[in-house]
Amino acid sequence: DADVTQTPRNRITKTGKRIMLECSQTKGHDRMYWYRQDPGLGLRLIYYSFDVKDINKGEISDGYSVSRQAQAKFSLSLESAIPNQTALYFCATSAGFGYNSPLHFGNGTRLTVT
Amino acid sequence: QKEVEQNSGPLSVPEGAIASLNCTYSDRVSQSFFWYRQYSGKSPELIMSIYSNGDKEDGRFTAQLNKASQYVSLLIRDSQPSDSATYLCAVSYGTASKLTFGTGTRLQVTL
Questions:
Q1: Which of A37, A56, A104, A109 to mutate to test the interface with B (most CBs of B within 10 A)?
Q2: pLDDT in tens, A49-80
Q3: Nearest-CA residue of chain A relative to B9?
Q4: Beta bridge partners of A12
């Protein structure tokens, strides 16, 4: 079983719909992250959380919100989806910071907004 | 704005050759550096991390860091077709463990 599990793997939704992407982990890491990946733009940080009570915006948080329901669960919501939110979304975890604490990624959710 | 720059490629090398992937970064207070490999449609997986100047070797992979020149590279020796993927350079700043990623270099290993 994957250490970092994302659901769904693929999702097609319509403009204006609310959608939630879920992430759960069994690695026991405190730090969790949401990234999106677009062709030519690389991975960009949306939100990150260092524990259940700590939520921080990343570089592209507009149009997104998150919820850290437990140490192991971190959800990303699009309140009103728009086509330019079509992307590959990754959840990631880390044990801490520095070169000994790399990011561990989930398998990704491919989201298409029509 | 902290930036990480990579040549998008594709970089094409014959099987058995050395592939050299390069990355430059803009912020001198960068602390840790990572190379991830990503196959098409898959998640990034860690290849190597490095934080001190010099070379770090792990099997066929060598990471090289030169902080004075703000340059980090990844060498892949004896390149195999299975090494064909996009290689992402990532740089961490401070204690937040946030990584800034380059856009990646696509490597093609030809038979």
A1: A37
A2: 999 999 999 999 999 999 999 999 999 999 99
A3: A40
A4: A112
